[in-house]
Automatic annotation (TrEMBL):
Domain POTRA span(s) in chain numbering: 204-272
Region (Disordered): 1-167
Membrane-spanning intervals of the chain: 180-206
Keywords carried by this UniProt record: Cell cycle, Cell division, Cell membrane, Membrane, Transmembrane, Transmembrane helix
Skewed-composition ranges (Pro residues): 1-10
Organism whose genome encodes this protein: Cryobacterium lactosi
Pfam families for the chain: FtsQ_DivIB_C, POTRA_1
Comp. bias intervals (Basic residues): 148-159
Name under which the protein is recorded: FtsQ-type POTRA domain-containing protein
Length: 398
């Protein structure tokens, strides 16, 4: 049932028909403690003036019907007792009360409705849990030793977690640098370990020697010369010893070694190319452009010109003759029979048909070779006896 917005209005008091009793005298209030009391004469004068100004009002207490008072008492808390002394009341009869339709419309009903709205128990429970008075009473309750120890452990755990989070926050940069250093050190250690395993592991020992690029030199002879390196790890091969072993072969002009893991050594050889034959005490020596003897024999090697120079293979004439021979195209070099170099500025060629070519020095040899090829086309061998290309811009045929 809904409560009224304000206190119930009391019904209007009926005027008694009989003689009215005199008003009860009101008790005299004591002045406040510590206040200054006015003289008695002044108080009497003020009282007389007030009585002349306004007549005293007579108030009579009335008694409410029992139904109204009981309904009001059931729906609202009891009011505090008045501090004033009780005043005399006047008993009224039923005839003196006003009719029922004269009561105000906002008066409380005499009987409660049959159905009453009930609040959910959950709401009441929540209200009881959130009651500040109960919370205050619970907080003011004395702690037991077990509860105090539990709170202490909780506080210690929270403190440790906070300290750990602060340490992590303030040491984040140093930990990042430390991780970088650890990663770098780990990489270096891994590389060193890999190198050590590759150097000293028997898995990297030399077992196969592969020789390529040989023509005049048997590859088996070269591999046999290097068999002293077998069983040595590839990173520990003695390249100086390999060089000394290959220098025994005069036909090897240069070489390149390649380690092919896990157990193979590849040797690529570039042989010397013979360019001509020079006379010697044994007959003829086949030499390359550096004057190194490739082979010797009593007979002149076929397909190679004879080089006749002052000072032998170590003279300046020999180097000029070699430069001229290397500048000639393959077609003219096949017709060449003899190269004579008295000095480095006097080189003369003799072709197979007996024709003579005056070359001069070794300068502009490529251009002179082009001019000589053109003259051989316009004046074949046999039609002339001499071709002079010492001045290639003004070549002469005789």
């Amino acid at each position: 049932m809904k409560r009224p917005a304000g206190p119930p209005a009391a019904p209007a008091a009926a005027q008694p028909s009989g003689p009215q009793p005199p008003a009860a005298p009101q008790p005299r209030q004591k002045p406040a403690r510590g206040s200054n009391r006015a003289p008695a004469g002044n108080a009497a004068a003020r009282k007389g003036a007030a009585s002349r100004a306004e007549p005293e009002a007579v108030t009579e207490p009335i008694t409410l019907p029992p139904s109204a008072t009981s309904a009001a008492a059931g729906d609202r808390p009891q009011a505090r007792k008045a501090t004033k002394p009780p005043q005399p009341t006047t008993n009224l009869t039923t005839a003196d009360l006003p009719p029922t339709n004269a009561l105000p419309t906002n008066a409380l009903p005499t009987s409660a409705p049959k159905s009453k709205a009930r609040k959910p128990k959950a709401q009441n429970t929540t209200a009881r849990r959130s009651d500040p008075q109960e919370t205050a009473e619970a907080s003011d309750a004395p702690l037991t030793a077990r509860a105090a120890r539990g709170r202490l452990r909780t506080a210690r755990r929270a403190r440790k977690q906070y300290e750990r989070s602060e340490v992590r926050r303030f040491t984040s940069r140093s930990r990042h640098r430390r991780n970088l250093w650890i990663a770098a050190a780990g990489t270096v250690v891994a590389l060193v370990a890999f190198v050590l395993v590759g150097v000293f592991s028997p898995l990297m020992a030399l077992r196969t020697i592969e020789i390529t690029g040989t023509n005049r030199i048997p590859a088996a002879d070269v591999a046999q010369a290097l068999d002293g390196q077998l069983g040595t790890p590839l990173p520990l091969l003695d390249l100086t010893e390999v060089k000394d072993q290959l220098s025994e072969f005069s036909l090897i002009r240069s070489y390149v070694t390649e380690s092919r893991p896990p157990d193979t050594l590849v040797v690529r050889i570039v042989e010397r190319e013979p360019i001509g034959a020079i006379t010697s005490t044994a007959g003829f020596d086949l030499v390359d452009a550096a004057g190194v003897v490739i082979q010797s024999g009593p007979d002149r090697p076929e397909g190679y010109p004879r080089i006749d120079s002052a000072g032998g293979a170590s003279g300046a004439g020999f180097q000029a003759a070699i430069a001229v021979v290397r500048a000639l195209p393959e077609g003219i070099r096949g017709q060449l029979d003899t190269v004579t170099a008295a000095t480095k500025d006097d080189v003369t060629l003799t072709l197979g048909g007996g024709a003579r070519v005056v070359w001069g020095n070794a300068e502009r040899s490529e251009y002179k070779a082009v001019v000589l090829a053109a003259l051989l086309v316009s004046h074949p061998v046999g039609s002339v006896t001499e071709y002079d290309v010492s001045s290639p811009d003004s070549a002469v045929v005789r």
